[in-house]
Specification:
The protein is an alpha+beta fold and 301 residues long. It folds into 2 domains: 190 residues, no CATH class; 97 residues, Alpha-Beta Plaits (2-Layer Sandwich), CATH 3.30.70. Strands 2-3-1-4 form a 4-stranded antiparallel β-sheet. The radius of gyration is 31 Å and the shape is elongated.
Length: 301
């Protein structure tokens, strides 16, 4: 009995797909366009998040030591800084190394030439604090480094990291808004496509109801049609995303690598792609469910 009912439901669902015509095609294409836009933005967000995390983990806090601190004292200061929570590693730079780096940064360092110029010992600190941590945590680490005996001043690009953090949060918000908007569009498109299928099959559905077909038997093929539309749109959107990534990833990587170092524009991981397919099916179910609910509530197609 169960096998016979299931077979009949699947047969009616496949027939609805075969006779879906232009509404079905339009629903799948619109779903594909929406999910392609969402996954393309998700790919951009994924790579920016990875890049920003790498940048934040590689940015060092520079502790300038007192001028009267010698090499042995610099090593002691380094050891005390290393014990602070949130510090990954730290290295000591001699005054000569500091002077060479300063001249390199000033493109020749003519302004640093002169008698009596004395550079301090420096401890370069790589923190474990990342963009995912709060700005207060980063500020607290800088304050703790500045409180170590022998440290005169601490330089840390906290303002730049805060701006990157704010941009990342803005992209998260934009991504959430885009996801909600696209989800609504997909649901509406699938719902209207299923509604048109109901109108096309209204005589058949009426006969089914007359011979005693249950609401579940009438609704199941339509729900299967909605699932197929959602999954089909998701797969088509992911196919378009793969084509776009294979053709544009190298160009984007080369364009950004000039100013941000070597950058590989990575695709979304497989588990995210699987979630997109599942999400497309869920949106298809919701869209079809709206039309089915309207059909059952009205008691007629």
């Amino acid at each position: 009995m169960i096998v016979a009912v299931s077979s009949s439901v699947i047969k009616h669902g496949l027939r609805s797909l075969r006779h879906g015509g232009l509404p079905l095609f339009f629903a799948v294409v619109m779903s594909a366009l929406g999910l392609f836009s969402m996954t393309a933005f998700g790919t951009l967000l994924w790579n920016f998040r990875t890049l920003s995390s790498a940048v934040s983990e590689s940015v060092a806090a520079v502790a300038f030591l007192d001028l009267d601190v010698d090499g042995a004292g610099a090593q002691e200061v380094r050891a005390r800084i290393q014990l602070l929570p949130g510090v990954d590693r730290c290295t000591v730079m001699t005054p000569d190394e500091v002077l060479v780096r300063a001249r390199r940064g000033l493109r020749g360092g003519a302004a640093l030439e002169g008698a009596g110029l004395q550079m301090p010992w420096v401890v370069e600190v790589i923190p474990r604090v990342t963009l995912q941590d709060s700005p207060e945590a980063r500020a607290a680490l800088v304050t703790a480094i500045g409180g170590v005996a022998g440290v005169d001043e601490v330089a840390h690009p906290g303002g730049e990291l805060a701006r990157v953090d704010a941009l990342l949060r803005l992209m998260y918000g934009a991504g959430g808004f885009l996801a909600v908007l696209i989800a609504l569009v997909v649901v509406v498109v699938v719902s209207n496509a299923v509604r048109l299928m109901v109108l096309v099959r209204k005589d058949e559905i009426a006969i089914q109801k007359l011979v005693g077909a249950s609401d579940a038997f009438v609704a199941a093929p339509l729900m299967l049609t909605g699932i197929a539309q959602g999954i089909g749109g998701a797969l088509l959107g992911l196919l378009a995303l793969g084509v776009a990534h294979s053709s544009l990833a190298r160009v984007v990587g080369v364009a950004l690598s000039g100013t941000m170092g070597a950058l590989a524009f990575e695709p979304l991981p497989p588990w995210v792609l699987a979630l997109v397919v599942v999400g497309g099916g869920v949106l298809g179910v919701v869209g079809a469910g709206l039309s089915v609910w309207r059909l059952l509530r009205e008691g007629r197609p």
